[in-house]
What does this fold into?
Amino acid sequence: MNELQLGLIGAGAVIVIGVVLYNAWQGARVRRRMPRPMPPEVAEQTRAVPDISDDRPFIEPAYTAPRPQPGSPAVPAAPPPASGAPDRREPTFGPDALDERREPTLGGDTFGEMDPAEAALAQEPQAAGDATDGVMDSVTGDATAEAGAQAHGESAPAPHAADATAAGTAADAEADPAHSNASNSSSTPNPQPAASAQPGWVDHRIDCVVLLRIPMSVMGDKVIPLAQRIRRAGSKPVYIEGQRESDDGWESLQSGTRYRELRAAVQLANRSGALNELEFSEFVTGVQSLADAIDAAPEFPDMIETVAMARELDAFAAQCDAQLSINVMSDGAPWSANYVQAVAAQDGLLLSRDGTRFVKLDVRQSPIFMLQFGETNFLRDDLTFKGGQMITLLLDVPVADEDILPFRLMCDYAASLSQRIGARVVDDQRRTLPESALEAIEKQLLTLYAKLEHAGIPAGSAAARRLFSN
It folds into this structure.
């Protein structure tokens, strides 16, 4: 064996010995940290002591006696469990506990009782006027927008009152009012007669109405399930309404109400286009099925005349369908979506259901204008890393109420927003908007509002919101 082999053997032996010694040292450290075993005599004494938790759970469920009402006999407290274990009692709210300790109350002997007047005040909405805060009323500035009337059938879907996330507001019912009332009525387990009639939504200016002559009055509970089968005809909503025996007015179907006459209606046009022959045939088939179920005689109009009326209404709507947008562009670094969301929420704007825009509502919970931040979806995107340099404010002209001057409110809000977050108001080409352009836009809006008013469909009305919807 040469010197190289001897050196390798020696190095290997040293490494093996080092590993063995290291393992022995680690084992000694672990053994020192382990708990020492209990001496045998102490262990025997411990086994003789019964464990409380051997026959009972760690947390014993305590019986809570119902709180006695004034004038009712007292309920005895539950007896303690019969066991050899030491007495153990959990806090209870039984009569004995009440005698031992009473918490302070607010002017009454029974905890939780409230004066009827106080209860009514407690249930009253706390922020009835939050939707119309004064952010936009205190600032004036240079702002305007570019307007373009788009083809009614080709325009992009515009947000309306049903997009807002104000749960329980009137915006949800305006998108499909008859179906909303029918669904609520049919889901009631024990229907009661309606205290007041819900006004009907059928409008002869934008609907094709079909009367259903019935030989005898019919209950709304029978018609509601049948009406829900024909909620739409293609892309057009269908409405079923009734006329009470004691009233000449039309209303949405209610459970527990008897109707002497019914009518069905299909919307002639919306932003999806005019009612066509196929949709009209689908509507007729559904109404005829409903009429056969209740022995009614429907009076259908002529299909050719109805389709012609629908196309005429759609052409008029295309002339009045306009959307205005202005932009707020950052003067410096881009904003994060998280920052834009905080600013919009602070200014009283509500996030839409799909999360793509914020909506500014008026006191009637109708939309004034929308706020968008590029393609950001505030419900799905990561708001920390999503950013941009431009905020877009959008006005759906025929949907917003003209009496509150929605375009002026949107421009004032844009000016206020730009001053607060370090930005400037620009158009789609990122050019600063002059005051002269703003005045020209307002003159064009007056002409459009007059045209809608002359047709009996003023901007912001229920008929306008239905006509300029999807």
About this structure: Confidence is low (pLDDT under 50) at residues 49-151, 153-195. The two ends are 95 Å apart (CA to CA). The longest strand covers residues 258-267. The chain has 13 helices and 18 strands.
